[in-house]
Design a protein that fits this description.
With 157 residues, this protein is an all-alpha fold. The chain is 81% helix and 0% strand.
């Protein structure tokens, strides 16, 4: 059980850390360093896609762990609900909004989407996606804080 708990803590750190690294370090660096904004967008999109799969895997492990530890009491756990909301945001973004953005890019071809008639719709959905990413990150911060509140040993679930 100690190994599962250690993995739980590591997975939580990987999830939040990679979320922050991709969204708030790597993607902005791409846009600031690459002259071709279309290329920067494509690379950032690829990283966000990988991040979505990392999020799904991390969230699934956390939910399985919490369910195994808490059993029926899992639904009374704020940590459980934070993880669930984070997973829902990932699913909405990756399986809902990202395909819509990809379709808008495809429809704009051969022009870059930001130079096309689809600019406003793309900007709107990109803004929604960015807002959800920020919300997910804030929920991740709350997850770490709530998880470690209470006992100095950090064993509160």
């Amino acid at each position: 059980m100690r190994i599962a708990t250690a993995i739980y803590t590591l997975v939580m750190a990987i999830w939040l850390g990679s979320q922050m690294a991709i969204g708030y370090i790597a993607a902005p660096v791409l846009f600031s360093q690459l002259a071709d904004r279309t290329l920067a967008g494509e690379l950032a999109g690829a990283m966000f896609s990988v991040m979505a799969w990392v999020s799904l895997a991390c969230g699934a492990y956390l939910l399985l762990y919490l369910t195994a530890i808490k059993r029926r009491g899992v639904f009374r756990s704020s940590v459980f609900w934070l993880v669930t909301f984070m997973l829902c945001i990932t699913a909405i973004s990756h399986f809902g909004i990202q395909p819509l953005l990809a379709q808008l890019k495809h429809d704009a071809h051969p022009l870059p989407v930001m130079e096309s008639a689809f600019h406003d719709r793309f900007a709107l959905w990109h803004g929604v996606s960015s807002g959800l990413y920020l919300l997910q990150t804030l929920l991740g911060v709350a997850l770490v804080i709530v998880q470690n509140c209470g006992k100095p040993s950090g064993k509160k679930l």
